[in-house]
Design brief:
The complex is a heterotrimer of chains A (about 625), B (about 350) and C (about 300). By secondary structure, chain A is α/β, with parallel strands linked by helices. In chain A, about 55% of the residues are buried. Chain A contains 26 helices and 14 strands. In chain A, helix 5 crosses helix 6, helix 8 (about 165-185) packs across helix 9 (about 190-200) and helix 21 (about 490-510) packs across helix 22. The longest helix of chain A is centred in the middle third of the chain and has 27 residues, at about 210-235. Chain A has two domains: about 5-315, ABC transporter involved in vitamin B12 uptake, BtuC (Orthogonal Bundle), CATH 1.10.3470; about 370-460 and about 520-620, Rossmann fold (3-Layer(aba) Sandwich), CATH 3.40.50.300. Chain C has one domain: ABC transporter involved in vitamin B12 uptake, BtuC. Chain C is globular and about 55 Å long. The chains are: A alpha/beta (about 625), B alpha/beta (about 350), C mainly alpha (about 300). Chains in contact: A-B, A-C, B-C. At the A-B interface, helix 16, helix 23, helix 24 and helix 26 of A face strand 2, helix 8, helix 9, helix 11 and helix 12 of B.
């Protein structure tokens, strides 16, 4: 049994969509006649709407409770354009119009809420849903008031798609279209960016992703899909009115998407069609009294599913796979004897094998020894507490600089001020002579700063290879349109990125584990992947936040070697936050000492080591000795 | 003082972790009544997980935790507090939206359920000990400085008349002045006989407060012993700081123990390869936050009794280059171009 | 400006008081569990159905219906907290929010199945003409709702500020784990906020129904939009702010309805409230009482 080559699959599916429904409708009218096709058609419409919501909820992690209102926008647009007593345009024009209008409305609704974190979009979409159903969709001149608009079936030449079975072909084709665009979303940097935003917004920023813009993009794209769903739905049901787009239906969509599996295309399509077919299966068994209980059951199922598995059915499958992986790991470790030590002592592999990065657009040449990073008079206040107080220091190109100080001295806050996650009250930051103080975090990432996080800056739900691809986000030089249509440079660039990611994978020693979700790896392994990701983007300046935390002394020594490699072999500049004093003194060329938010010393290692304040800081005498009670 | 004769806290072979990761690989700990037990270690060694296990916030996988003779391994945090455990959590965790008095009242939650009548007395006792808080009883906790919040957190823990206080990295994030005040506070509290477990990453600070030392490394206790007669070499090794000798920490130890503790800088042991001149300054693995020495206090130190170690003033003027020990299994050092040896 | 009449002000404040009460319930749950309960309104609708059954169908006095409504609503709130929220203590707040969406749809569709769409009503507790307040005819129910709103408002404030348990509830919003570390039961705090929130919801919905006339499934969910806006205006984390926000929304709604009475545009009140949401999020996301928007995720 030969597997069909990829190229042949799509045309085959399209052909089946065109030929099968009309055929079955005529050949088997009792099984595939009017009612049955219509119900299936509704399922297909719901499937497209579910794909739309999946984009927002499953990929980008935002809750929308008004998606059926967006479907309504598309439906009414179609009605207005194609109705006999309105513009009476051919159906063909309705599809892009519905998509466009759906996207536009989503833009207006999404903009105020997506700049903010969390559930604000949910709040807005509830209001949106009611506002549309009670107000906008009832405007007589626009939508025919409460009686609505009569929407005709499409006409192609002289043929009218009156038979539901015939119309089903069009519906299936549109589903395929939306599916393909969705595939293009997930396989390009857009989808990866969405999922990174869902996993962790600061991490996404550090990869150069404009979080707010991407959340809005997800919602707008989703609006376009929903609009198309509306364009499909309107001719199918024949009459569109406000009552058909009530709040409950948006909630129903949430149930479908969550139960079908957040983030799973196949899952949500199957769930949508299953929902539509559900009454047909169960009413004959349980009788007419069962009508309406399907929603009750579905909602109960949702609560249970979310409680146990927020990710729906695919997450359950994913978890099983993970558990097997973990068990295998544990078995291998015990077989090797002395489990944990081997894990923790995983040495960072030599990095010269890392692929030479592609040139970053606009990258300036760096002269070793010149000032790469210049931090001037940074002060950060957190509601009365001065976390960083007038801190100034600089880092020269080609050196390894250390930033040390006690826990709570303000080092991570200073890092955050340099990378843009925190806005200082006073002060300026310069990179290669240009001021970056006003740039957003993702812009600074694009300007050449890479960083690691104490809590490991990876998108933990994504696989190793996806993280490596994600890391190259700023290098993926193709536009959104090119991504969605899989035309233009996107294919070539993606191929290039993938090659580079594979090389990095091999260099880091993760061949064979490309598709493993990062959260399954041990802490040490995650650190390695994180370092690989940071290095892939050719940042001029690499900020490492406590890279040796949790490492055994042996692993820390190995880390020192790797840091020197980064400086000497890869030619990067490194700024370290560290507590491991011997590591710092071993590896750093210059040192800045922070204590209670102030810089108490800064300069080359030799200079700093001789300063009395630094020694005092290290002496750890915090109380005058004569104040100690005399011990008997 | 607790009435129980046995140890206040007994931890036996506890393993714990998150998800697939194990963080503690068999931790043992014994705390006798009136003791101040210290837990030290590098970042990532498992100190905060240990505290969370003691509190009951992280479940134990294998092993046992006993408090006042009772097995509390499966007991909830609330139950343990009702039994007499109190907490000064990492980062203070005061209730920022509530006033000082409301914070203290919440600290007395279990006390007020046991015996409401005692509350007024306990509160006034706490205000006596913390006059700064008495002055600010209606101030909203979130508007206070870090040091003031630290005092509030300690005071709050005392409101339940606890049998054991778990103190988690109290000095973290505090200015040197605040650390001084905190030190005095904890010192006084310990002097009243309250049993404490102190987790600290600032070794010198911690050593001045504790009676015995437990060092964690990668989830296991690798060194345990009383502060008197502390094996400084071993401690230094586990904390990876090469040298612990010299004024700073020795002074801490000298302040607690008889003068038999060595306080002179010792020549480096031959097996350690170093790149620079070795002289010793106390290089605690985690730095204490320390103020830039003011002239006045330096003078004060110079006048300190001889029993204490060499004065810091003297220390400060000594040529201090910092030791750089190589670890066991040191890698060969390549002559790097930029370095001058 | 005819719509800015004293009559409208009184009406707006009375209606706004109910929205404020509902908003207080929303913010209470939010502070106790850091979750937005999207089903909060619909819990009230179920209470209303229970009251209908007891009062209109079976003829019991209003107070019996009220007690029944509050009991059933509280049971739903407590049940959901116990069976779902508590089991998701380690999960993301977004997942819990999705679970409340499930609860919402559950109650909504249950209402449709058990009671159908036909409109019902529950007569107010006190018959009679009511009084004339500043030229406005205020019904006895409206007076009662004012009294109850104030009573609940002050009662809740006293409970939260004066008792130990109430303090723990307030503290839970700041630092849930520290609440456990002083020995207070976070589980009880959580249960209280969900139960009380549900009870408040039932009462508020019951009191406003006579003014609106008839109800069906989904009745309170629309009210919920107004209450949610009120909470947003108040800043989501502030209980007094939620109440003031409610008054603001009530006034806006009455003014807008009055000013556009001749317009043919349907649903203007809800449209204006939706616009208010957008404006608040654009201009001052932290609400009137907050500085930075709380990161509710």
């Amino acid at each position: 049994m030969s597997r069909l080559p990829r190229q042949a699959r799509l045309p085959l599916v399209i052909a089946a969509a065109i030929i099968l429904p009309p055929l079955l409708g005529r050949v088997l009218p009792d099984r595939f006649g009017g009612v049955e096709s219509r119900i299936l058609g509704v399922g297909v419409c719901y499937a497209v709407a579910a794909l739309a919501l999946n984009l927002v909820m499953g990929y980008a992690g935002q809750i929308s409770l008004g998606h059926f209102a967006l479907v309504g926008v598309g439906a009414f647009t179609t009605g207005v354009l194609t109705a006999a007593d309105r513009f009476a345009l051919p159906y063909f024009f309705a599809i892009p119009a519905a998509a466009l209008l759906g996207a536009a409305v989503a833009l207006v609704v999404g903009f105020p809420s997506l700049r903010l974190r969390g559930l604000y979009l949910a709040i807005v979409t509830i209001g949106f849903s009611y506002a549309m159903e009670r107000s906008i969709f009832r405007i007589r001149s626009l939508t025919g008031g409460s009686s609505g608009i009569e929407v005709p079936r499409p006409i192609a030449g002289t043929f009218t798609f009156l038979l539901s079975a015939d119309y089903l072909s069009i519906l299936l084709l549109l589903l395929i279209l939306v599916w393909l665009v969705d595939v293009n979303v997930t396989r390009t940097r857009i989808g990866r960016a969405f999922r990174a935003v869902k996993a962790s917004e600061p991490v996404a920023s550090s990869f150069g992703i404009d979080v707010g813009r991407h959340k809005l993009l997800a919602f707008v794209l989703s609006g376009a899909f929903a609009g198309i769903a509306g364009a499909m739905y309107a001719p199918l049901v024949g009459t569109v009115n406000a009552g058909g787009f009530a709040y409950q239906l948006s909630l129903l969509l949430v149930v479908i998407v969550v139960l079908g599996g957040l983030g799973s295309r196949t899952g949500v399509v199957v769930a949508a069609i299953a929902y539509a077919e559900f009454p047909r299966i169960f009413i004959p068994i349980f009788g007419e009294g069962f009508r309406g209980w399907d929603l009750v059951l579905g909602a109960a199922g949702l609560m249970l599913a979310v409680r146990n598995h927020p990710g729906g059915v695919p997450e359950i499958l994913e978890h099983r796979r993970e558990r097997k992986l973990i068990a295998a790991k544990a078995a291998a470790a015990t077989a090797a004897g002395g489990s944990v030590e081997t894990e923790e002592a995983t040495p960072t592999p030599a990095l010269p094998q890392m692929p030479r990065p592609a040139e970053r657009a606009g990258a300036k040449p760096v002269t070793p020894g010149s000032v790469l990073l210049d931090v001037q008079n940074i002060s950060v206040n957190f509601g009365g507490l001065k976390a960083v107080d007038d801190a100034s220091f600089s880092v020269k190109a080609g050196e390894i600089a250390g930033l040390i100080g006690p826990n709570g001295a303000g080092k991570t806050t200073l890092f955050n001020a340099i990378t843009g996650l925190v806005t200082p009250d006073v002060g300026r930051v310069f990179l290669l002579g240009s001021e970056i103080t006003q740039l957003a975090p993702h812009q600074r990432a694009g300007a050449g700063i890479g960083r690691t996080f104490q809590g490991i800056g990876l998108a933990k739900d994504l696989s190793v290879i996806e993280n490596l691809l994600l890391a190259q986000h700023t290098l993926a030089g193709y536009s959104v349109v090119e991504a969605l249509t899989n035309l233009g440079r996107s294919r070539a660039v993606e191929k290039d990125l993938r090659n580079r990611a594979r090389e990095a994978l091999v260099a880091l020693g993760f061949e064979g584990r490309a598709d493993v979700p990062v959260r399954v790896l041990s802490h040490g392994q995650q650190r390695i992947v994180e370092l690989g990701c940071v290095l892939l983007t050719a940042p001029d300046l690499v900020l490492l936040d406590e890279p040796s935390a949790g490492m055994s002394p042996g692993a820390a020594e190995n880390l020192a070697e790797r840091l020197r490699d980064i400086r000497d072999q890869l030619g990067r500049t490194v700024l370290l936050i560290e507590h491991n004093l011997p590591l710092v003194l071993d590896v750093c060329d210059s040192l800045t000492v922070l204590s209670s938010g102030t810089v108490i010393a800064s300069g080359s290692i030799d200079e700093v080591a001789n300063q009395p304040e630094v020694i005092t800081a290290y002496l750890g005498e915090t109380v005058p000795l004569d104040a100690l009670p005399v011990m008997a | 003082m607790s009435e129980a004769k046995g140890p206040v806290l007994q931890v036996d072979a506890v393993t714990a972790g998150f998800g697939a990761t194990t963080v503690l690989h068999g931790v043992d700990l014994t705390v006798q009544p009136g003791d101040v037990a210290g837990v030290f270690g590098l970042n990532g060694a498992g100190k905060s997980v240990t505290m969370k296990v003691l509190a009951g916030l992280v479940p134990v996988r294998t092993g046992r935790v006993s408090f006042l003779g009772e097995d509390v391994t499966k007991r909830s945090p609330e139950d343990r507090v009702a039994m007499g455990m109190a907490h000064v959590p990492q980062g203070r965790q005061v209730f920022a939206g509530l006033s000082v008095e409301q914070n203290l009242r919440l600290g007395a939650y279990t006390l007020r359920r046991r015996d409401k009548g005692r509350y007024a007395g306990v509160l006034s006792g706490v205000f006596d000990r913390f006059p700064m808080l008495a002055e600010r009883r209606t101030q909203i906790a979130g508007t206070m400085s870090g040091g003031q919040q630290a005092s509030l957190a300690v005071a709050r823990s005392l409101m339940s008349e606890p049998k054991l206080v778990l103190v988690d990295e109290p000095s973290a994030g505090l200015s040197p002045m605040a650390v001084q005040v905190l030190f005095g506070t904890l010192r006084e509290v310990a002097a009243t006989g309250v049993t404490m477990v102190l987790v600290e990453q600032n070794v010198a600070f911690g050593l001045q407060l504790v009676d015995n030392v437990n060092v964690l490394q990668v989830g296991r206790v690798v060194y345990r012993g009383p502060v008197a007669g502390l094996d400084q070499e071993a401690l230094a090794g586990y904390l990876g700081i090469g040298r612990l000798l010299g004024t700073g920490v020795s002074a801490s130890l000298a302040g607690r123990a008889p003068a038999s503790v060595e306080s002179n800088p010792v020549a480096p042991t031959p097996r350690r390869r170093t790149r620079r001149v070795v002289d010793v300054t106390a290089s605690p693995k985690k730095m204490a936050s320390a103020p830039v020495r003011k002239a006045a206090s330096a003078k004060k130190k110079a006048a300190a009794p001889v029993r204490k170690a060499a004065s810091p003033k003297k220390m400060a003027s000594a040529p201090a280059k910092i030791a750089v020990p190589a670890k066991a299994g040191a890698t060969t050092r390549k002559a790097t171009k930029k370095r001058s040896s | 400006m005819g719509f800015l009449s004293l009559q409208n002000v009184v009406l707006g404040l009375i209606e706004g008081g109910i929205y404020g009460l509902l908003a207080v319930g929303i913010v209470l749950v939010y502070r106790g569990s850091r979750v937005l309960n999207f089903a909060q309104g619909e819990i009230g609708t179920i209470g209303l159905f229970v009251a209908w059954f007891l009062v209109t169908d079976r003829g019991y006095p209003w107070i019996v219906g009220a007690i029944g409504a509050v009991l059933v609503a509280t049971a739903i709130g407590l049940g959901f907290e116990r069976l779902v929220v508590r089991k998701m203590a380690d999960g993301t707040r977004i997942s819990v929010a999705v679970a409340t969406v499930g609860l919402l749809l559950f109650l909504l569709s249950l209402g449709f199945v058990l009671f159908g769409e036909s409109p019902r009503s529950v007569r107010g507790p006190i018959a009679g003409q009511g009084v004339s307040l500043a030229g406005v005819n205020v019904s006895p129910t409206q007076i009662l709702s004012l009294v109850i709103t104030l009573a609940i408002g002050f009662g809740l404030a006293a409970l939260l500020q004066r008792t130990d348990f109430g303090l723990a509830v307030l503290a839970a919003a700041d630092d849930p784990s520290a609440v456990r570390l002083v020995g207070a039961s976070l589980a009880k705090v959580s249960a209280f906020t969900w139960g009380a929130g549900a009870a408040i919801s039932a009462l508020a919905v019951l009191l406003i129904e006579p003014s609106i006339g008839v109800f069906g499934p989904g009745f309170a969910s629309e009210l919920f939009v107004y209450a949610m806006t009120a909470a947003l205006v108040g800043g989501l984390a502030s209980l007094p702010g939620a109440f003031v926000g409610g008054l603001a929304v009530g006034l806006l709604k009455v003014f807008v309805t009055s000013a556009t009475i001749t317009s043919s545009l349907p649903g203007i009140p809800i449209l204006s409230v939706f616009a208010l949401i957008l404006v608040v999020l654009l201009a001052r996301p932290g609400g009137l009482f907050g500085a930075k928007p709380p990161a509710i995720a």
